[in-house]
Structures are given as structure tokens and as C-alpha cells.
Amino acid sequence: MFGLDKTDTKLLLIVAVLCLFAPFILNPFPTSSGLAQFNAGYPDLMQRFVIFGIFAVGFNILFGLTGYLSFGHAAFLGVGSYSAVWMFKLLSMNVIPAILLSVLLSGVFALIIGYVSLRRSGIYFSILTLAFAQMSFALAYSVFTPITGGETGLQLALDDPRILGISQTAGGNIPVPALFGLEMRASWDLVLGDWQFTFNAGYYLCALILLAAFYMAIRIFRSPFGMMLRAVKSNQQRMNYTGLNTKPYTLAAFVISGMYAGLAGGLMASMDPLAGAERMQWTASGEVVLMTILGGAGTLIGPVLGAGFIKYFENIFSKLNDNVLHGWFAFMPDGLENLMVTIVHPFVGKGWHLTLGILFMLVVIFLPGGLVEGGQRVGRLFRRRDIKSTGPEAEAAQQRNAAE
Amino acid sequence: MDAIILQILNGLDKGSAYALIALGLTLIFGTLGVVNFAHGALFMIGAFCAVTLSRILTLSRTTIDETQTDFLGNPLKVEVPYAHDFFGPVVGDALIDWAVPLAILFSIPVMLLVGFVMERGLIKHFYKRPHADQILVTFGLAIVLQEVIKYFYGANPIPTPAPDVFRGSFDFGAMVGFEANQIIYPYWRLVYFAFAALIIGAVFAFLQFTTFGMVVRAGMADRETVGLLGIDIDRRFTIMFGIAAAVAGLAGVMYAPINSPNYHMGMDFLVLSFVVVVVGGMGSLPGAVLAGFLLGILESFASMSAVIDLIPGINQVIIYLVAITILLTRPRGLMGRKGVMED
Amino acid sequence: MNIKPDFSKNANMAETAPAFLSVWDMHAYYGESYIVQGVSFNVHEGEILALLGRNGAGKTSTLRSIARIGSPLVTQGEIWLDHQPLHKMASHEAACSGLGLVPEDRRIIPGLTVEENLELAQIAPPVGWSLERLYDLFPRLGERRKQEGVTLSGGEQQMLAIARALARDIKVLLLDEPYEGLAPVIVDEIEKTLMHIKSQGMTTILVEQNAVRALELADRAVILDTGGIVFDGTAAEVLENDELRAEYLAI
Amino acid sequence: ASHSGFTNAPAGATVTLGFNVPQTGPYADEGADELRAYELAVEHLNGGGDGGMMGTFSSNALQGNGILGKKVEYVTGDTQTKSDAARASAKSMIEKDGAIMITGGSSSGVAVAVQALCQEAGVIFMAGLTHSNDTTGKDKRANGFRHFFNSYMSGAALAPVLEKMYGSDRKAYHLTADYNWGYTTEEAVKSSTEAMGWETVNTVKTPLTQTDFSSYIAPVLQSGADVLVLNHYGGNMVNSLTNAVQFGLRDKQVNGKNFEIVVPLYSRLMAKGAGANVKGIFGSTNWHWSLQDEGSKAFVKSFGTKYGFPPSQAAHTCYVQTLLYADAVERAGSFAPCAVAEALEGYEFDGLGNGKTLYRAEDHQCFKDVLVVKGKENPTSDFDLLEIVEVTPASQVTYAPDHPQFSGGALGTCNNGA
Amino acid sequence: MGILEVKDVGKRFGGLQALGDVNLSVQENSCHAIIGPNGAGKSTLLNCLIGKLIPDTGSVLFDGQSVLGRTPYEICQMGISRVFQTPEIFGDLSVLENMMIPIFAKRDGAFELNAFSSVFAQRDVLEQAEHMLAEMNLADKRHMHAAAMSRGDKRRLEIAMCLSQNPRLLLLDEPTAGMARADTNNTIDLLKQIKDERDITIAIIEHDMHVVFSLADRITVLAQGRPLVEDTPDKIKGHPKVREAYLGESA
Ligand SMILES: Nc1ncnc2c1ncn2[C@@H]1O[C@H](COP(=O)(O)OP(=O)(O)OP(=O)(O)O)[C@@H](O)[C@H]1O
Ligand SMILES: Nc1ncnc2c1ncn2[C@@H]1O[C@H](COP(=O)(O)OP(=O)(O)OP(=O)(O)O)[C@@H](O)[C@H]1O
Ligand SMILES: [Mg+2]
Ligand SMILES: [Mg+2]
């Protein structure tokens, strides 16, 4: 289907189903239960999952295929966000032009930075990209405050021109981003007994774009271009002596992944119209690196999983305070309850970083290929069990067990 | 003129901090080839060795002072350090005062131990793994170390002053014939500079005058073959890691009086130290030191208000600008070796 | 999965004279692929053994297994060298017990000069040939002593790899295609050297594609095919046995 | 969204507040203290504990039975002191937990970002620690309220004291954090000190990420300045002050006068980080536990009994903001943001620590007494680091809503959401 | 005039004159062998031809056009392919993919943003690759990781990769080193066949005289960076200087 082979189609369909039913999948716990804290099915987080998914998928096109580790991709995310917000300020609150401009501008930005940085490889390349991104961050935070809003971020104001739209709503408020009138924050709740599921317009727009982006990534991975990129990673020397110019290949990969980042940035601003400079800091670049490695660099679905994993911890674990803990363990006798709270306390709430750090280490130690590898192992386990249970020996064993 | 001399002095001092941190990092990163995102954490742990020692020395028993009240109006609890009980008030106070220099001795075994445990327990398994995996695991470790320190010491900076004799500054300008008050320089920074020079010299000597450096370099390039030549490369890597941790730790201990240690100080230095090492050139110790000083001095110049007025924001980006310029003009940084982490 | 060696072809396993190097039922894997499938053979002191077989037969893997490199991973089997259990050692311990390997891709260490490459070999005791003696054997290396090892020409690198093995005091020399890339005159030279050190008691295992040449030099031969031994006997036997040569050596 | 006409209208027997504070990053300790204050406030609102300031508060609307009879529950989140993360966290409180009011934060960037979000979503934002003029200046929002003082007020409060202590013939050198808060603070202090006759010799911007300020401190003496103003906060302030003292600036004589250092915005936690270096250094602060009015005493007692140490100014602000919000809801008789905003606008109250206080309708800025403090020479404990030098009356720090330092931006109209 | 004209090429490495005044003319559709002792400068000469090194002096003309100053990929696109002394392949890719890349380079040029069609939808490329693998006896390894092959196999793959580009000039640096005898013979046959069928010119460096004498039409002997003699194989075989300096008694 769509020019993909069977496994890829399956993968795409899985992602599509996951995206479509995310509001259900992410809200498995009834609202009244103590575990409701672990529900992640609210619009903002769902949007974040897919947006960072796009970011990571794009990053992986560069890193996973060519092995060039950019430590400055957050800069493109930032450029994307700033362009989108400027579009909202100047043109209209429609998200389409905003997203287009983000992709375009980040592409141009990536072309310039990539052209310079790709003159070096390995760690030297990483540091060059890092330096560019850090410069962008530092300047956006300070000297460029008039363009970027500096510390407080670039925001919409009541007196923005918005030449194709309105400066303020009838109620005297700033209009919100919308897709031809469909507000991005528009949500619809489905209440099924004790369960509540939220369907949000912005989320589904992001999800659709993620699907498109993911589909493109599959195509790129499977294309001759993708193969050339892997060849670059494997042996540049051989590439050159085979009559291939590696520079345009790596540059194209860099620009494409920069545009993915810009797209993610534009979407981020479309869901929540504010662009902060921290989006460009090295920690943000580092985050996407971590997402990709955590999920499984070079795999298609890995980066999306990694993005979900990190964002989940950031948003869910950080909200578990002692109050919540006491709620969970309330059924226990007092002494035990306090003991449990004391044990869990350092790992949640303000300790969420600790948990994340420990999980990073566990994943990379025990699952060298990232989360995808974990999934494969589980898969293999099941498959092996299947084989066993159908094999003649297993049958015999079952019979024996039955007889005993 | 005096403004320039002043900034050179400041630059040397900043540079010695950068050089010292980068030195430890380049032993692990440039020599062992491990992208160690936990290096900043090692630096931070060093600084907290100083904090811990001063906490230990000021361990106190509480007595109630009925004449004063605390914020709730209760009688004030007064803390009397045990050091006073054991050594008498004079020696006790002197010990507390000298906590930071004493922490140097204290930190060496601690940091060596930290380094050994870290290498044996974790890094050992990652030499052959992709750099990306190394980043993930060491970053995870850095977070864990930070959070542990935060759990015990809080997030706020903890003042850790230098001994009284080193506090304050001297008038360097007046000593060399300038007007008074034009070029002043704090004593502790002079100490820091000298200390950095000493450590850098010692590490150089060790790697230069023994075959240790060559073996480790060879081991990094090709562990298998070095093993075939009968050399136990694992042990040497462990030692190297321990030394690097100790260097990072010492840099941290000495830095504590300059800026009060806090749990995320390592992260603040992390990016910078990577930049310094790479600009110096992968695998080159002198390169890292040179780059440290160079960036320190240039950063100081860029912070002069005359320069900022000329190019607004230059002080924000100078380090990165210099890094980009150097990396574009010299493919392997200042003194990099061919083939180290170029792919 | 225990593939027992075929004793009918292992003529000399039954011999009573104690072997100097003995490999017993060795199995090794690269990840999941099973490469060395139960190899057993003996080498006596001062003997040259030719280890032959087609491309991909597992010769290199066998040598690497003996040298305890860790890849391929030896899962089973015993290796004894002069009463020392190599199978319980790490590769550097095996090397210190007297094993020297000249790897097939030479493995000159980047970043080190020719001389440093040789010095490196003399850091761990026991030390073998002196640098002077090595430079006498390979004058080209002496001329190039300050040059970075990896910039040497292919043949020069091969010389360096051999010299590096001799720089250590070893009892058993494992040579993986040592003549590759060497000019015919140099090959002659090396053959002479091998005979010379053999006369001083060196035990050698030689892997070589030019089977005839190797067999003329060797005392005994072992032929490998898909990870198992298909022949173990004297070199002369192979030279005379056309069928064997045709089937496994294609000569 | 529910159908009662405004976002997250509480349906059951409880109402949820969102406490959005930095739990990781450099301000984690400050955030922890804010959280303590919030928990205490919730306890008091629900009728637990000794009631704290509820007893001294001039309004008697609060009964200790929750808010409008609904039990107060709360959720917490981590701002990480980043505007993105703070907004994500606030959004999750609004979207997932149904929070009806968001409060907290410990930097102006975060406050402005979250305030804008709350405006858009239709909930009330009660700012925590935010000192930049912009929060109630060019970035003000109808749904946001600030109980903290601001840069202008710091300048206005400090200037007279500085004049008294150091004279009106001084040359000042500013080091300023290179971002919005730094700019407004520099401007405020500069204009109010210049108004009394001081000369500003130089202003130098320092990068946010700077840790060692030596190269900025060293040229100060050469400039001929005799006062150094450090427009820095948090770690920047701790480090720049430490460096300045290291360079011996405080022991110097320039122009025949003692060299002095001023820190416009003080907090006790920062003072603790800077250690002995703060001794004798002037600055301003929103509130301090050593205040002797009844409200402050009650709060310190209640907080100190529960946690074992006195509250910080951030804790005070956060506690007060919670009470003020609850009180406004009671008075309005509704949780609807616009009703609450109306109840807060132009509201005058007393008994919450800083004397008579006004929430000005035009910009939602609180006007109250501002404290000028000095680093204490002989502290008796870890908390006893600052002493109050002057309580500058509210009238002296009040400015017109259209003051140039606050120009631009518009409050807009309150938003009830959907 | 030959297809390849090397005129007065010289190259120094520090104090070492690796090449000096090399003049060489390779006739179209011939096989020209370059032999000589180790370190004579043979590989260095090839490096100068493909743009890996830039000679200090002299000129290199391919088909009348200068190759100096061009990047390696441009030179390759002109029609010069090279097999390296140590196999250079794409270790992380499958054998089949390794085979397809040069065919793509041939078809699409130095860069083509072909990002939306599947690799395997490129039937023509796939077929050619499969065909080439079959020809090289590598078909059964097509899905193997190239890095996991034995070295002889890697070398054959590399030759196949170069041949698949249909180069006009094929440079071979010890192509049969480490190859089993049978495969060496296969390779010789293949090269001969290709030379005749596709009118390819071959320049080969080899120490295996069997290969040299079976293939070469002309031979240049290089010693210490300078051509010693150039002649037909028969003459070279009997040349006393060559015998002494290079071939030794075994030839
Ligand atoms: N790293 C590896 N991973 C997986 N398989 C490998 C690896 N190295 C070698 N092999 C496989 O092991 C088998 C034996 O290889 P080995 O290198 O031992 O052969 P060899 O006899 O030395 O061949 P050659 O004469 O070509 O050098 C081959 O089929 C090869 O494909
Ligand atoms: N980068 C370099 N730096 C210094 N010397 C070099 C460098 N590259 C090659 N040489 C020297 O130049 C000489 C010629 O090397 P080249 O590789 O061309 O020899 P060759 O004829 O191919 O020999 P072989 O048959 O052994 O491969 C050698 O002595 C080698 O050591
Ligand atoms: Mg082999
Ligand atoms: Mg060669």
C-alpha cells in the first residue's frame, strides 16, 4: 500500500491506529481511581507526544541514517516556532501559513548551518552545530529580544496587526490559532461511565501531520537516497571512490531533518502560540538526541517511542506529589503508608529527573538498541512461545502434564 | 592598557579553570574515546567534597542560649562545632577555616574511588558501544548524581569560602607600577592559577615520561591488538579514568570558593568543557589546555564594555564564535590527532 | 549440539607424545552464527603446522579463538599451551603465556610510529627480539622507524606486523596469511626466518592461501572446511593426495 | 470543558487549584518553599491548623470551610523555570486536572508566559515571585494578578535609603542580567538614583549563562565608579556578589568614599547562597519574616511551627495569593474568572503582612509597603541573614498606570473561557 | 597516445621521495601491470590517479583530460574505478546493497535526490546487482552484512562493485591477495573476459606473479619510486635486474 512493502505498511497502520485512538489508549484509568494520575490523554500532552515525535523522526533521518550527530537541532525548532508566531502576529491566526513559513525558514536556516558544519565530520561536526545553536539561543534570549521576546518568549498581543485576520475578538481577547475557523483548542469530551476521553482538534491535526511525516520518513529510509545516507555512515571514502558526492547527500539529509524540526516548532506554536528561547538551548537539542537513542536510533518507530517516553515522564511524573502518594497508599496502615510514601517520594514530583536518569541508564544497559529492541525481545519471546507450544515436543509435554 | 592587562589576568584565571576541567575531560573523551556527559557531575562532586568536609568539620552539638530567642520566640539554639570540643576553639576554627585546602587531600581518594567504581561498574561495558549509547548512559548517570546531591544538599548554592588568609585581593597594578586600584586581583584566584599549573604539569609529566599515555592511546585505537601484545588494557583504562575523575574533582574543590557550589554547576560547565576539548583537538592534552586558556582570555576581552558597545551581544557568543572559526580553519581543532572521533 | 571431532582423520590425536599446543573440541560463535564447530588438533614443540581451507572456512576464526580475543566467543573447548590452560585466560594473559598472533588485516595501531608499534609489544614481559635485530631482518622498517605505522605501504605493514610478534618472547607463533602483499623476495626472506626460528624451537601455525608454498614449509597440515576439521596429517600427505587438494584447496 | 459558562467550573464537592512551581533547576529550593506555603494555605482554607493569616486578614469572607463550601484540593507541577515547560505544566493542570486557578512560578519569564496562557484558557492566574515591570506592564493580562512588588518599586524604595546612607554624589556602575527582567530593573534603579543626583558611569550586560563574573567585576574600579549595582537574580546574583567581594571591592576607597555594592532584589535564599558576602549590602525585598505586624507574625508562627524554619518572601507571596483568590471567590460568590477578577480589581485589604494593600484595577498590580533590607553583620542562624532598614510606604512606590516604564500592552478583557 | 598518460609525476612524503619522474602510458583495452618491491610507490601512484593524493609535480591525463585537481568522485565519474589494497566496502550494508550503490552511481551520477521511490523498485539496478553477484559467486551471501564476510569474500565483492560501474579504466591494487586459489583463477578469468567484452583498460598491482603473467600485456617495474623497466611479460620474467631485486629465486 502507498508504495510500501508489507512490514512498512503494517508499521504505518500501527502508528495510524495509535494516533487515532490515542485519546483512549492514553486514558486507560477511570477518572476517580488513584491511577488516574497516570492518564496522559489530555490535549496538551497528546499534542506534545506527536510534535516531539515529528521532531525526533526528522532528527533520525540525519542521525540514524548518516550517523552525523547534530547537537543543535533545537535551533531549527526555535526558528520554526518564532516564524509561526510572527505569522500569527502579522498575517492571521490560520495555522497553515504559519506552518508553511516555519518549514521554509527552518529549511533555509538549516541550509546555511548545514553547509558550514558539514565541512567537518564526527565530533567536530557535533560541536559546530552545538555552537551555532547556542549562539542562536544566547542571542534570542538577549540581544534579539525585540524579535524574539527574549526571556518571556514571543507572544501575541491585542494590538498585533494580523492583516488577514482580526487583532482582537469581539470579547476583547486575542484570537486563537485555528484551521479555517476550526480552533486548535476545540475539544470534545466523551464520557463513558467513569472514563473520560477528550478529542481535540489540534491533536488530530498534529497526528495527521505526524502520519504524513512518518510516511515520508519511511519512504526516505527505503529509497535509494536513504541507502546512500547509510552508505555515507558506513564508508565515506568508498562513496567518493564510487563516484558519489557525499556532501549534497548529507546536506540534503540535514536540511530535511531541519525542516522536520521546523515543522515541529511551527506546530508547537500553532497549538500554543508562544515561542520561548529555551526551545533553542543545548538541553533541548540534547533532548531530541536522547529521545532518538532511547527509542532506537536508525529505527523508524524508535524516535517516536523515545519522544513519548521522555515527555510522559516530564509531564506525568513531575506532578506526583506527596499528597497524591498518600492518596495511593491510604488503604495501608498509617506506619506502612508513611513508609511507602517515604520510599517513593524521592523518585516522583521534584525527583522525576532522578527516575528519568535511572531509566536512561537501565534502558541503555539492558536494551542496547533502545526501546525498539525491548519491543523486539518481547516479540521474540512470544514467537518462541508460539513455536514451542506448537512443536511436537511441547505437545508431548502438555500431554504429560495433563496426565499427571 | 591596564584594562587589557587586567583582562589577560582574568582570562588566565578563567582559562585555568577551563583548562583544568577540559584536561580531565580530554583524558576520558579525547584519550579513552568515551563521550562522558557525566564529567560535569564529577567536577560538581569534587566541589561537594569541599562542602562535605566543611560540613563534617562544622558538625555541631546544639546548646540552648536562654538570652536570645529564635524567630518563633523560643530560646535560641546555638551550635557548637565538635571541632571546638576536640581541638579547642583556636585549632578548631583554623581547621574549619582551612576546609577547602584540606578537602584537596580528602577529595583525591574519594574521586579516585568514584572514578574506579564508575569505570568498572558502567563505562567498561561501553567502550565498544556507539557514542550515542555512551551519551545516553553518562547523561543518565549525570542526572542521577546531580539528583542525589540535590537530595542531600538542596538546590541552593552553598557558600564555601577560602581560608581567611586567601580572602580579599592584592593590588597587582601598584606592584608593577600602575596607579593604585587599577589592577586588583584576588589571592584565591592566584592560588587557583598556580594549582591548575601544577596539576596540568603533573598530568603531562605522567603521560609524557611514562609509556602509560602511549599504551592507553594505542588501546583506544585498537584494544584487541594491544591485548594480543600481552598488555592488560582494562586495568590501564581504569587507572586513566580514575586519574581523570581525580583531576575533575580537584578542579571542583578548588573552584568552590570562587563560586558557591550547587548541584547543577556541572551541567553549566559541561557544554563549555566539550567545546574546549574539541577546539583543542581530539586526543591532544596540550591542545585542550591551550584552548582552555585561549577561550578564557578571549571571553574576558569580549566582556569589556568597550567591546560590547562595539558589537552588542558579543560576550554572549564569543566562545562559540571562536570555536566555529577555529574548527573551520583547522580541521582537527588546534592540535587534534587524526582519526580520533572523526566519524 | 556437541559435534565430536572425527578421529579417523585425526591421526595424530592418538599419538602419545605430549603435545605442546593442544586444542580440544573448540566451539565458537559470532553472535548467533556458529562458526568454529568443534575443532581439535595438536601441535608439537618446534613444529610448523599449516592450517588450510577455502575462503570463509574458519581459519581466521580458529586462530582468533586460540588467541582468546573474545570475538568469536568461545563457548566450549580447551586450549593447552605447555601445560597452561589458555581457555581460562583473557587474551592478554594468553599472550603473556607465550602466544603471538600476526592478524590477517595486520592491525597496525594508528597514531603510533613504527618504532612505537614495536615498543608497545615490548611493554609486557617477556621481551623477545631487540629492535636492532628486527631492523636487521626488515631493513625497510629501520628506515621508516619514525613514520606513522599506518602510512606504510601494504607490504611494509605486513613486515611490521610480523616484527611486532617477534618483538615478544613467544613460544607459539600464529601467522594469518603472513605473505600477503609481500614481494616474492621478501617472502623468501621470511620463509628463511621461519625455518631459522623453528630451529631454535619456535612452534608455528601458518594460515596461507598459497597452499603449496605453505605445505612445502610445514611439517604437518590441518584442513578446515565450514568450521570443522576435515583433514589432519603430515604436509607430505596433502601434497600427494590429489583428491584432498582438489576438494578442499582447489589446487 | 463544562457547560457552566466558564472553564473548569467545579461540579462536585471539591475545587482544584494548580500550584505551578520550579521543582527542578536552580530555583528548586525556592519552589519547594512556595509549595510549602501553598500546602499551608490549603490546610488553612479547609479549616485545618491555626488559620494563619486568615485571622488577621481584613476580609472576613473566609470561613475555613474550603472555598464556597467546596473542599480545596490541589495539583502540583514543575515549571523547570522554562516558559515552555511551565506552560505545559499549567496546561496539564487546566486540561487534565480541571484546575480553576493557577499560581506560582519564580521568574518573570515564566510568570508572563503562564499568565498569557491562563488568559487564553480562561482561568485566573495569581503570580508567584515575579519582579519584572513587564508582568503588570507591557505583558499584563486581565486574568492575571500580581501580589509581588516590581523593579520600579525597588528603585523607588531604594533610592531614598541609598541617598541617606551613601549621599547624593555617587557614581554607579551597573551589571545587568541580559534579559527582560534585568533590563527593567536596571532602568528602574538607574532612573530613580539618577533622579536624586547619582551619575551612572556604565551599564554592562552579562550573559544569563555566565558563572564567573570576574571579567565584569574587574574593570569596575577602573571606571571611577564608587557604587556597583548588581541587577542579577538567583545564581547570577550569588556569583556576581561573591566575585565582587572576592575582588575586594568592599575594602576599597574611591573618590574618597567607601566603595559600595547594591543588590536591588534580595531574597533570603540567595543571601544564604552568597554567605558572608551579603553583610552590609543593601537591597529591597517584598516581605521578610522579621516584620512585626500581626499578619506576618501569625504567618511566621504557623509556617515555622509546621516546617521548623521561617518562610521566605516567595512563600509569603504564594500563601497570600491563595488566600486572596479564595477570598475573592467568596466575595464574588462565584468561581467564574470574570467575577473573581472583578472582586479583586480595586480591592483594598490589610492584615496580610505589608500593611494596607491595593490591587489596582488598571494593571492588576498590588501596591503595598516595600522593604529595604541590609545583609546582617552578625546573623544568629541560617535564616537570620537580612535586617529591615526601612519600610517604604506604599504611597512612595506608587506610580501612574501609564508610567513610561510600564508602557505598551493592554490588559484586555477578562476571559471566562468556555 | 594511451588512454592514461602519466607524465613526470613526483610525490614526496617529508624527506622521502615516494615517486619521482614516473612516466607511464597505458594503452586502451590493454592490461598493464605494475610490479615492484614493497614500498616502491605503486599504491602511491594509484592514489595520485584517483585524486586521493595530489602529486607534487607532473601531470596525469585520462582520455586526454587532466585528472589533477578533480575530486575523487569526479574522477570516478570520468570512468576510473579502483579496488583497494585492504578491502573498502560498506560494512554496515548488506552485500546486495553494496552491489547496488555503484550501479546507482553509474546510472544517476554523483548526486540524485531519489528519496521517494523504494530501492527495490529500481528493477534495472536490482537485476544488474543480482547478476553481478551471481557472476562473483556471492549470490548466496546477498543478505549478509558485508562486514561479517571473510576477507576473501570482501575482496571479491569489492571487485564486483568496481566492475559493475563499467569503468573505462579499472585500477586493481592486489586484487587477489588473500583469495583462495580457485577464486583467484576465477577472478583472472573474469577480468580477462570483461576486458575483452567491455573494452576496459586495466592497471593492476600484484605480487602474485601467476596473476600478473596470466593477465598483463605490459609490465612496468617500479623501484624506489622510479620505473626500472617497462616491457612485455616474457621479457620481464627473464630480466636479471628484476629477478634480483624483486622476484627472487622462486619465480
Ligand atoms: N564478525 C563476524 N560476524 C559474523 N560472521 C563472521 C564474522 N567474521 C567472520 N564471519 C564468518 O565466519 C566464517 C569464517 O570466517 P573466517 O574469517 O574465519 O574465514 P577464513 O577461513 O579466515 O577465510 P579467508 O580465507 O577468506 O580469510 C565466514 O563465513 C564469515 O562470513
Ligand atoms: N602518508 C605517508 N607518509 C609518509 N610516507 C608514506 C606515506 N604514504 C606512503 N609512504 C611511503 O611511501 C612509500 C611508497 O608507498 P606505497 O604504498 O606506494 O608502496 P607500494 O609500492 O604500494 O608497496 P606495497 O607493495 O608494499 O604495497 C612507502 O615506503 C611508504 O612508507
Ligand atoms: Mg582469514
Ligand atoms: Mg601498495
From TrEMBL, chain A:
GO cellular component annotations of the record: plasma membrane
CDD domains, per the entry: TM_PBP1_LivM_like (cd06581)
Keywords: Cell membrane, Membrane, Transmembrane, Transmembrane helix
Protein name as catalogued: Amino acid/amide ABC transporter membrane protein 2, HAAT family
GO molecular function: branched-chain amino acid transmembrane transporter activity
Origin organism lineage: Bacteria, Pseudomonadati, Pseudomonadota, Alphaproteobacteria, Rhodobacterales
Protein source organism: Marinovum algicola
Localization: Cell membrane
Pfam families according to UniProt: BPD_transp_2
Cross-referenced InterPro entries: ABC_transp_permease (IPR001851), LivM-like (IPR043428)
TrEMBL record, chain B:
InterPro entries: ABC_transp_permease, BCAA_transport_permease
UniProt-annotated location(s): Cell membrane
GO biological process assignments: amino acid transport
Name the record gives this protein: Amino acid/amide ABC transporter membrane protein 1, HAAT family
Pfam families per record: BPD_transp_2
The species this protein was found in: Marinovum algicola
Membrane spanning stretches: 16-35, 42-60, 98-123, 190-216, 237-258, 270-298, 310-328
Residue stretches in coiled coil: none
Family, as annotated: Belongs to the binding-protein-dependent transport system permease family. LivHM subfamily.
Source species, domain of life: Bacteria
Automatic annotation (TrEMBL), chain C:
Transmembrane in keyword set: no
Top-rank taxon: Bacteria
Keyword set includes 4Fe-4S: no
Short name of any one Pfam family annotated for the protein: ABC_tran
BP terms from Gene Ontology: L-amino acid transport
InterPro entries given in the database record: AAA+_ATPase, ABC_transporter-like_ATP-bd, ABC_transporter-like_CS, BCAA_Transport_ATP-bd_LivF, P-loop_NTPase
Residues in ABC transporter domain copies: 21-251
Keywords: Amino-acid transport, ATP-binding, Nucleotide-binding, Transport
A single GO molecular function term of this UniProt record: ATP binding
Family: Belongs to the ABC transporter superfamily.
Protein name per the record: Amino acid/amide ABC transporter ATP-binding protein 2, HAAT family
TrEMBL record, chain E:
InterPro entries: AAA+_ATPase, ABC_AA/LPS_Transport, ABC_transporter-like_ATP-bd, BCA_ABC_TP_C, P-loop_NTPase
Record-annotated ABC transporter domain positions: 4-249
Keywords: ATP-binding, Nucleotide-binding, Transport
Gene3D superfamilies: P-loop containing nucleotide triphosphate hydrolases (3.40.50.300)
One cellular-component annotation, GO: plasma membrane
Official protein name in the record: Amino acid/amide ABC transporter ATP-binding protein 1, HAAT family
MF terms (GO), sorted A to Z: ATP binding; ATP hydrolysis activity
Organism of this sequence: Marinovum algicola
CDD domains registered for this protein in UniProt: ABC_Mj1267_LivG_branched
